[in-house]
């Protein structure tokens, strides 16, 4: 069974103060490296007086693209811990930028790693998670006499109706998860004794709240 495709439910920012330093994590969904770089540049421009704007991002269903930057912090104390937080949450297509306003007290390497990691993790929790599910549209053509039984079947099996068209027959469009397509088609065909016509339409991503 494949891992669910998870990402953040909403773009957000989270701030905490650690030994007088302000750590502000902004986390956002992205679709490309251009999106990531634009987000990073925007946050840097809005926080020109900050001491550091460190970042990490992951792109692709299999996280094919992974980038991170310490932006002046000691090597390995900011970008990598932030990237690890994204990996630990198993989220995809996101960028995290942690802005630090130095408060005058040095945290040491271990303290910095914890600060950047924890601030990123808290931002992820605040953003919430959603699961993106790939679905296909099925167009089911039935006679008017079969329409009510079809609607009952769809409700019984919790299948979402995308729309209906009325003509000589009724065409009911439904959304079906891709991994359930074969099963649903067979079930419909068996239930209605092959008295309906099924055609496959466009595919889409459906986003549903995710809780562990």
UniProtKB/TrEMBL annotation:
Domain Impact N-terminal: 19-124
Gene3D superfamilies membership: 3.30.70.240, Impact, N-terminal domain
Location of the UPF0029 domain: 140-195
GO CC annotation: cytoplasm
PROSITE patterns reported for this sequence: UPF0029
Pfam families to which the protein is assigned, alphabetical: DUF1949, Impact_N
One GO term of the biological process aspect: regulation of translational initiation
Record-linked InterPro entries: EFG_III/V, Impact, Impact_N, Impact_N_sf, Impact_YigZ-like, Ribosomal_Su5_D2-typ_SF, UPF0029_Impact_C, UPF0029_Impact_CS
Alphabetical list of PANTHER family matching this protein: IMPACT FAMILY MEMBER YIGZ (PTHR16301:SF20), IMPACT-RELATED (PTHR16301)
UniProt family annotation: Belongs to the IMPACT family.
Protein name: YigZ family protein
């Amino acid at each position: 069974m494949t891992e669910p495709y998870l990402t953040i439910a909403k773009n957000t920012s989270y701030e905490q103060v650690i030994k007088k330093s302000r750590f502000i994590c902004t986390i956002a969904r992205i679709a490309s490296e251009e999106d990531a770089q634009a987000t990073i540049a925007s946050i840097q421009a809005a926080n020109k007086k900050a001491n550091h704007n460190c970042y990490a991002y992951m792109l692709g269903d299999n996280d094919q693209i992974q980038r991170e930057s310490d932006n002046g912090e000691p090597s390995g104390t900011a970008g990598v811990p932030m990237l690890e937080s994204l990996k630990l949450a198993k989220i995809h297509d996101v960028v995290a930028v942690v802005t630090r306003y130095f408060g005058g007290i040095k945290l040491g390497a271990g303290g910095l790693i914890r600060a950047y990691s924890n601030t990123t993790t808290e931002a992820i929790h605040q953003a919430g998670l959603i699961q993106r599910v790939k679905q296909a549209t099925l167009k089911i053509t039935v006679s008017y006499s079969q329409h009510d039984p079809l609607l009952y079947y769809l409700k019984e099996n919790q299948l979402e109706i995308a729309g209906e068209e009325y003509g000589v027959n009724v065409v009911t469009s439904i959304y079906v998860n891709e991994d359930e397509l074969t099963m649903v088609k067979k079930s419909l065909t068996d239930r209605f004794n092959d008295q309906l016509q099924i055609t496959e339409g466009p595919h889409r991503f459906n986003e549903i709240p995710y809780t562990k």
